[in-house]
Amino acid sequence: MNESLIIERIKQKLNEIEKTENIKILHCVESGSRAWGFASPDSDFDVRFIYCRPVDFYLKLEKTSDVINWELNDIYDINGWDIKKALGLLHKSNPTLFEWNNSPIVYKTSPEWEKVGKVIDEYFCLKSGLYHYLSTARHHYKAYFSGEEVKLKKYFYVIRPLLACRWIIDYGTPPPMLFSELVNTELENDMKPFVDELLERKMRTSETGIGKHISELDRYIEREFKAVSEIIEKEENDEKNGWEGLDRLFLELLRV
Predict the structure, then answer these.
(1) Coil, strand or helix: which one is 71?
(2) What gap in Å lies between CA 126 and CA 119, rounded to an integer?
């Protein structure tokens, strides 16, 4: 898999999407394991974008789609959200938007998205962020850790959101995308050698690579489930920002 050629092809596909759909892509990033920093040799490219349509589109009475599902195969997973949908989800402090905004791999961006980026963290709600990442970790743990062996990549799908919870607790901001940054900042020192070894194995094996449970990491995960849950119970609910700022931003983006 020639990564540089694929990235160039992704950029060509973005131009095709804009012309075919009559949209402007405001921001486009890598959103999966490649952006997290633990891709396997055969990982696909999870391409996500936010787009804007001409003003008249938003004045229609008929119900219109607010997503574009462009391509899904062994190499590419490409889809996007309309800016109106995105801002509506931002009002709900949807964690996906903060992740896309923090992705270290940006395929395309715009001055319009800079305006979004200046205010996006104002809509981050600590408690809902904690709930999201804890439930994500629990889902993967429950679904994939019951057998004698486990897919290696699933350790990262549990540990990363738990570290994201710790980041939110410590800093009160959206967590970074890069797994390495979360590990360096939030992981207990005695766990780092196990994670480093696992990471090396993961990046040498396929997406379906399996192995024995790592008891030290299993115990760490169980401890973190309990500790984070107790912290969430004590947290007060966040006060959400109103719609006024997002309404102004939406109209400003449409006028460009």
Answers:
(1) strand
(2) 16
* pLDDT tens for each residue of 79-107: 999 999 999 999 999 999 999 999 999 99
Task: List the one residue out of 55, 64, 70, 131 whose CA is nearest residue 95.
Answer: 131
d(CA 150, CA 152) in angstroms, rounded, equals 6
> pTM (2 decimals)?
0.91
- pLDDT tens-digit series, residues 21-35: 999 999 999 998 899
Q: Which two tokens stand for residue 146?
A: 């019951």
175 φψ region: left (φ > 0), alpha (ψ -120 to 50), beta (else): beta
Q: Which residues contact 112 (CB under 8 A, 6 or more apart)?
A: 24, 26, 52, 253, 256
Of the candidates 134, 256, 155, 147, the one whose C-alpha atom is nearest the C-alpha of residue 199 is: 155
Count other C-beta atoms under 10 Å from residue 163's C-beta: 25
Cβ proximity of 111 and 42 under 8 Å: no
* Other C-beta atoms lying within 10 Å of the C-beta of residue 212: 8
Encode 115-145 in three state secondary structure: HHHHHHHHHCCHHHHHHHHHHHHHHHHHHHC
Tokens 């094996």 label which residue?
205
Map tokens 């709930």 to a residue.
131
Distance CA 213, CA 150 (A): 6
Rounded CA-CA distance 60/76 in Å is: 32
Q: Give the whole-angstrom CA distance, residue 78 versus residue 3.
A: 16
Cross-strand bridge partners of residue 29: 48, 106
